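The protein record filed below.
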Amino acid sequence: MGTQTTTQHAPSLPAPPGGHRERDLLRLATAGSVDDGKSTLIGRLLYDTKSVLADQLAAVERASHARGGEAVDLALLTDGLRAEREQGITIDVAYRYFSTATRAFVLADTPGHVQYTRNMVTGASTAELAVVLVDARRGVLEQTRRHAAIAALLRVPHLVLAVNKMDLVDYAEDAFTAIADEFAAYAARLGVTGVRAIPVSALAGDNVVERSARMPWHTGPTLLEHLEQVPVLRDAAAEPLRFPVQYVIRPRTPEHPDYRGYAGRISAGAVAVGDEVVTAPGGGRSRVAGIDTFDGPLDVAHAPQSVTLLLEDDLDVARGDVLVAADAPTTVGTDLRGTVCWLAQQPGVAGTRVLVRTGTRTVRGVLQEVGARFDVDTLELEPSSGSLTLNAIGTVRVLLAEPVLLDDFAEHRRTGTFLLVDPLDGATLAAGMVGRSPLADAVELSGRCREQ
């Protein structure tokens, strides 16, 4: 087990803001086709919940008038880049933070253009809810299906269909119902059930925050009411411990001559003093001797707290290693198989050398195989063409130079992800999920539906 050490606690170490663990927080992302009104919807949500500062609103008013408009263009509250304002589109992910008396929100407004699909992957990767917008006049489009497929791929727990611009179809119930039924059928083929459909007009404010008197036939919640009521995932602490080490603290001061602490953020699970842990991929075993934070030592810590762990034994632990619960099964290896969304202009072909980032660990690898591609229209896996192009979704096999923790994304959403990075310029090539893709299940489900 190694040489026994004496536990000493550091006087000052980082910790999350007080009370953050208990706060009810929902992370959500918006998606949809171009001109469906995503930015306007989010702007309306921020404006009607009084989450816009006076100087921000004044700046948006000036920008709106400069563009020749009389009314305030609420889309400018999220379209912050100059190029976005000039073109009237969303290019990058815009994050906004707001809260109500019930809940706090972290919101990612993602682009609608197909060439920016990779940005939707970024925005939805940590979301617990995705709002997919549809123009009531145009219905479900290819990009709508693409975003629904990505939400399914990322296993976003909750999906909302916001049928926007209801004012342009005279608030007709049959127009809303037809779109909601078509989208629900497609989502079911992806294995996604329980989609909440809400008719809204972001421009007029109908059913966004305030209930609309012009759609009395809608008896469900407004968008904000649903966001406040939807169950937030709170199972992170119930999962097996995953503690990626970000930094090894060795102060080497007279007060702490033998201090060795492993700093990081708990990705999943909980840890207590006395718990037995294992290092991955090393396999060393020890027990937790102490848990340090900025506010002092703790007996127990859990996700998503940032802490420093002290172990009873001297182990070979470095940045990139993961401390896991000793009684939980883990998979460590050099053969990484998963599903990726290709994010780079340069295509991904077999034989490409890459860097693979999993958690806080970066290792060298080779893109050994490029498998089937997923067609969002037909819900079929196309035979491999030998490469993945920008925004393509497909399966890959990567051989790694060193073993890493390989958590299946289906069971460990927080640690079952990886990035493929260009070793020459550091550009991100692809974002991926370890293990069998839920889209493979969707293909099988779709095939059975066609047979029936």
About this structure: The domain at 25-229 is CATH 3.40.50.300 (Rossmann fold).
